């Protein structure tokens, strides 16, 4: 049994602030860190320090980066006339893993959730409009999540873009690969039908 | 621990760990209740539905007496109210309604009348022919059923129904130009709001129809009034007022 010290309590309190970590889990993690070899624990500590010092948001697309602009925005092989709008940098990572998109991105850093006080002015929508105003963009692909808040965010942005001379598209929505039609809800099936393609 | 077969409306969702959600429901049987929905964010979840905000869902869950968190076993979406995804005014109005429910309802208290009103509100707002002018009735009704109905018929001091241009937050009633006192608890209110609303409060079925230009004023008033009563900010209020302008 460890005698409770202030440094232990401080560590538990800090871990407890992380998402999904309750008091019990924080204590378990703190005990684990105490039992770790010292060099391993210090590596963890210095990697936290390093990401806080080196990683920031790209000033153009708001992706996470160590260089500004990020590697995607500064890549000359990327198609710069097409912006894919996502909620978070994690979504950029998901599209990059797919390897199917070769344009540039814009991370809104959230979506409209009025109940949580997240309104359009709290997102990076103004910065998106500024990028488009500078010219050269022919298509904006709205890839917010297909839930009610994500759809509302896409709808809001599409209204803001109505005055620009460009194509505004929404990613295809519908039945997931490997999913089952039988268990799909009516909205999903409706979206799948709306987005149907000619069989070629 | 008992197993319940129930239905409810999703009020809010918060991500929990890698693939789970904590979902707050307004259920028919147990009122406002938090649920742990384990693994629900995975594409192939065993729970069976993705629990979108404001959707109506059939739910089977475990609940231990005295426990604040129910465990969701199965869920099946009854209605996702698709119009909310295609109209920002409907989305904003439902967000405001659900935030009022979230603040106003005490946990674990069954409210069959409020459940029915919520069902009717969502069914109405989802109809293609819905008009925003029908909203005030539902908001006055939900405020009333939660115990916070504003009284707009007459001045609560002298009883006149003329010049009702202010509202006393403490009294929860209108006050006329002559009787009003200068206080931060007395807020200005457009006169037409009192005269339009007072005739319709007792009508059934959403029959108050404020003209559309009055809607921002109405929601401004409801937001100020309910925030004072709840002693809490209603975060979705400003977004709704913007959408109604």
Shape of chain A: globular
Taking the alpha carbons of the first and last residues of chain A, their distance comes to 68 Å
The largest sheet of chain A, given as strand count, sense and whether it forms a barrel, is: 4 strands, parallel
- Give the DSSP E fraction of chain A (strand runs of 2 or more residues): 5-15%
Spatial shape of chain B: elongated
**CATH third-level topology of the largest domain in chain B:** de novo design (two linked rop proteins)
Chain pair sharing the greatest interface: A-B, 25 and 36 residues
Structural Rg of chain A: 22 Å
Q: From the structure provided, what is the oligomeric state, counting identical versus distinct chains?
A: heterodimer
Mean pLDDT of chain B: 87
| Unreliable parts of chain B | none
Tally of helical runs of chain B: 6
What is the N-to-C succession of helices and strands of chain A?
HHHEEEHEHEHEH
Could you give the count of β-strands of chain B? 8
């Amino acid at each position: 049994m460890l005698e409770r010290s202030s440094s232990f309590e401080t560590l538990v309190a800090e871990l407890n602030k992380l998402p999904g970590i309750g008091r019990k889990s924080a204590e378990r993690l703190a005990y684990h860190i105490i039992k770790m070899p010292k060099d391993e624990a210090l590596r963890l500590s210095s990697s936290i320090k390093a990401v806080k010092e080196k990683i920031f948001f790209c000033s153009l697309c708001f992706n996470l980066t160590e260089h500004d602009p990020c590697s995607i925005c500064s890549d000359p092989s990327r198609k710069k006339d097409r912006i894919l709008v996502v909620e978070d940098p994690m979504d950029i990572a998901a599209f990059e893993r797919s390897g199917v998109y070769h344009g540039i991105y814009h991370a809104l850093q959230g979506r409209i959730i009025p109940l949580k006080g997240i309104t359009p002015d709290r997102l990076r929508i103004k910065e998106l409009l500024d990028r488009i105003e500078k010219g050269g963009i022919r298509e904006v692909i709205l890839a917010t999540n297909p839930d009610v808040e994500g759809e509302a965010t896409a709808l809001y942005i599409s209204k803001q873009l109505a005055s620009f001379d460009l194509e505004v598209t929404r990613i295809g929505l519908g039945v997931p690969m490997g999913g089952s039609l039988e268990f799909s809800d009516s909205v999903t099936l409706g979206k799948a039908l709306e987005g149907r393609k000619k069989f070629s | 621990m008992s197993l319940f077969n129930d239905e409810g409306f999703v009020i809010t969702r918060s991500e929990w760990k890698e693939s789970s959600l904590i979902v707050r429901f307004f259920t028919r049987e147990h009122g406002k209740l938090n649920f742990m929905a384990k693994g629900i964010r995975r594409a192939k979840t065993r729970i069976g539905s993705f629990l979108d905000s404001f959707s109506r869902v059939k739910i089977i869950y475990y609940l231990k007496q005295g426990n604040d968190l129910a465990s969701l076993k199965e869920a099946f979406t009854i209605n996702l109210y698709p119009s909310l995804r295609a109209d920002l005014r409907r989305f904003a109005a439902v967000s405001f309604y659900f935030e009022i429910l979230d603040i106003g309802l005490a946990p674990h208290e069954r409210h069959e009348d409020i459940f029915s009103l919520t069902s009717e509100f969502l069914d109405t707002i989802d109809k293609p022919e819905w008009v925003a002018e029908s909203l005030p009735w539902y908001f006055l009704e939900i405020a009333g059923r939660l115990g916070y109905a504003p009284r707009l018929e007459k001045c609560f001091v002298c009883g006149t129904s003329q010049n009702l241009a202010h509202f006393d937050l403490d009294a929860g009633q209108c006050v006329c130009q002559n009787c009003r006192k200068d206080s931060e608890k007395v807020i200005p209110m457009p006169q037409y709001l009192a005269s339009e609303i007072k005739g319709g409060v007792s009508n059934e079925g959403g029959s108050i129809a404020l003209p559309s230009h009055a809607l921002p004023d109405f929601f401004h008033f409801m937001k100020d009034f309910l925030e004072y009563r709840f002693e809490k900010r209603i975060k979705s209020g400003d977004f709704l007022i913007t959408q109604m302008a």
